[in-house]
Amino acid sequence: MSGFVAIINTNGAPVDCEILKWLTDALHFRGTDRQKVWSEGHVGFGHALYGTTFESHYEFQPSSLDGEFWITGTARIDARSDLLNKLGLQSELRLDQIPDSDLILYAYRAWGERCLDYLLGDFSFVIWDKGRKKVFCARDQFGMRQLYYSQIRESLIISNSLYCIQQHPAVSKTLDEGAMAGFLLFGDHTWLDKELTVYADVKSLLPAHSLVLSSDGFMVRKKYWDIPANIPLLRYRNENDYREHFREVFKKAVCDRIRTDRVVLAMSGGMDSSSIAAMLCEIQNEDNHPFHISPVTVVYNTVHPCREHYFAGLVARRLGLSIHYIDGDLYPFLGEAINTTRPLEIDQPSLWMDIMRQESLLGRVVLTGAAADNLLSYPASLASLRAAGNPFKIVYDSIQLRKRYGKFPGLGTGLLNKFRNIWPINGSGGSAPYPYPSWIKSEFEEKMCLKDVWAERWASSGRLFELRSRASLLHESLLTMDWCSDDSVMKNEFPPPEKRDPYLDIRMVEFVLSLPAIPWLFNKHVLRCSMKGKLPGEVIERPKTPLGMLQQSLLELPGTQWVDEWKAVPGLKPYIERSKIPRLAGGVQGAVSSYINLRPLMLNRWLGCLSI
């Protein structure tokens, strides 16, 4: 995926071209096709291209249409033909020769900051508006692409690479304590605050937000999109119309993500990725530009219970695909540490890197179905059932679902979950899925008010959602997650492939909001019905099957004594009481305890990569 950087000196001083080139060179691992810099007075842009579309052959960022508006960024714009029509340029431009960055410039020239109302896809970019002397930045609606910024002294530095922005001499390497606390409490600081990065001087622009730096140096961040709240429900007489409508929207979402000749698919044996595979094959048979499909599947044969080999094989044989299997049994638990852009709970880091490496050898674009559960499987709240009308139809559909799946859909009260594997939070009235960590250093805990943060986080999760709107439920399901995967490693040995998820598509979201929750959103009923005849029956009827507690299986293997014998690096001491961490070798504490109590070790390894 391409890398970019921008430097804007708010005091009007000329950009230091040596620093700009230095930062652009630091992006080489992100874009090996070509690098380019541009500067004019107090504004400078850099770009490292990693072409992932046919049109990127014509891309030469930083670029401008007329010298008035300049852009640097990374983008894949969807519904390109529709956008060109809205711009009134369909008769003037050849769409197959217009890179996505130029489409953004045309949109900005026509609509200014309102261009974001018309842009679909995954993007982050910076535009210099010369006439208005302002900088305009934006990040896509779901945050699939990253955008960092640092306002230091009299400069604003922007990039989609944390490594790049850290190379600027004015940006400190001081760690952000909130990010460290977020990892220790929740396993990822983005659950606590998505604006934080691990560095105190660097922030992340939130998904669906823009940033404007005006001529007077005043910076404004603004939310430009949210889950739409007033999508009317579809009222088809024929159930087949729902299925065909879904297939039409799903096909557009997949098709817009494959403007390339080689597509890699992160495939399990479940419905989500298998449905993408089926749609890819359908498009391949119709498309005038054939592309090669390379599914990649991770399997376990002995270390951990796993049936992905069997089910993925069924799909591959049905569709005529050849799967690249990766044997997870061959990779150690917590092998060589990786210098990631934030502490992450990765049980087999060498496997994680090998997956990325093998994907990059097979193609530059990887399709994933990671967001399907969040989009297609949310409960039918009482508010959404009332909106659907006709209670007799709801009862009838519920009975039919009971016959097919062996259970009735719930009403969204969440009462059953309240009694499963929970620990009360003292005085909060909410519940947490695991206990509060016992090994956090008391001084750090008090300084950061961590018990209050913990209580507040889980208290909100205990609310009944029976009266909440469908948009509110989907907002929580889709927009609280961190979907960004384009800057996970500080500096890679190879350009990481670009991940794209057709379930994270505004057109898909709006269609799902228009579906009657019963029957279509129970057990992904709409997806299963739409894939009938396209996928093997065993896969369509297969219930949701999570991989399970792989971490516990790995801990139970011989030779894990070292997880109790590690030495703390100096940088860990402000956060952790090492002596309070229980013994974990052999998985003796159980899966939940292991999950929580391995975090100090994981943070220690991450800090070691930083040589702190």
Automatic annotation (TrEMBL):
Q: Where does L-glutamine bind?
A: D100
UniProt keyword annotations, A-Z: ATP-binding, Glutamine amidotransferase, Nucleotide-binding
Q: Which Enzyme Commission number(s) are listed?
A: 6.3.5.4
Q: Please give the pathway this protein is involved in.
A: Amino-acid biosynthesis; L-asparagine biosynthesis; L-asparagine from L-aspartate (L-Gln route): step 1/1
Coiled-coil annotation reads: none
Query: What residues does the Glutamine amidotransferase type-2 domain cover?
Result: 2-216
Domain of life, per lineage: Bacteria
Which InterPro entries did the record assign?
Answer: Asn_synth_AEB (IPR006426), Asn_synthase (IPR001962), ASN_synthetase/amidase (IPR051786), AsnB_N (IPR033738), GATase_2_dom (IPR017932), Ntn_hydrolases_N (IPR029055), Rossmann-like_a/b/a_fold (IPR014729)
Q: From the Swiss-Prot or TrEMBL record, what is one GO molecular function term?
A: asparagine synthase (glutamine-hydrolyzing) activity
GO biological process: any one? asparagine biosynthetic process
Q: Which reaction does it catalyse?
A: L-aspartate + L-glutamine + ATP + H2O = L-asparagine + L-glutamate + AMP + diphosphate + H(+)
Tell me its family.
Answer: Belongs to the asparagine synthetase family.
Protein name as annotated: asparagine synthase (glutamine-hydrolyzing)
Provide the species name. Answer: Desulfocapsa sulfexigens (strain DSM 10523 / SB164P1)
